[in-house]
Specification:
Layout lengths: L2 E5 L2 E4 L4 E8 L8 E6 L6 E6 L6 E3 L7 E6 L4 E6 L8 E9 L5 E4 L3 E6 L1
Parallel strand pairs: 2-11
Antiparallel strand pairs: 1-3, 3-8, 4-5, 4-9, 5-6, 7-8, 9-10, 9-11
């Protein structure tokens, strides 16, 4: 069973930066595509970035392109989300997500980390 734990959230002023980290136990994250999602109050959870397995293609939703960067640290078995030029509309709970197993039949979410951007 893969367990994910996010860290790095907090309160920051608009224009500031935060770096989120997703750590895993029970799996080597390099082998899997990892996604970051966020959910704002009253909103559906949305995928904002994904990095393919073994540093394959990277995807960003338009609203974060040019401001957020996803990356792997294989030595630490973590995936980071560097968030720069933060805006109040980035306020949300951020989650990392992985599908794994021989046919990617299993799903695992972290517990989430709160990001609050003040204006």
């Amino acid at each position: 069973h893969v367990q994910l734990v996010e860290s790095g959230g907090g309160l920051v002023q608009a224009g500031g930066s935060l770096r989120l980290s997703c750590a895993a136990s029970g799996a080597t994250l390099e082998r899997y595509a990892i996604a970051w999602y966020r959910q704002a109050p009253g909103q559906e959870r949305e995928e904002i970035s994904c990095i393919s397995r073994r540093d394959g293609p990277i995807h960003y939703v338009d609203s974060v392109k040019g401001r957020f960067t996803i990356s792997r640290d294989n030595a630490e078995n973590t995936v980071a989300l560097q968030m720069d030029s933060l805006k109040p509309e980035d306020t949300a709970v951020y989650y990392c997500y992985v599908q794994y197993g021989s046919t990617y039949q299993y799903k695992s979410w972290g517990q989430g980390t709160q990001v609050t951007v003040s204006s």
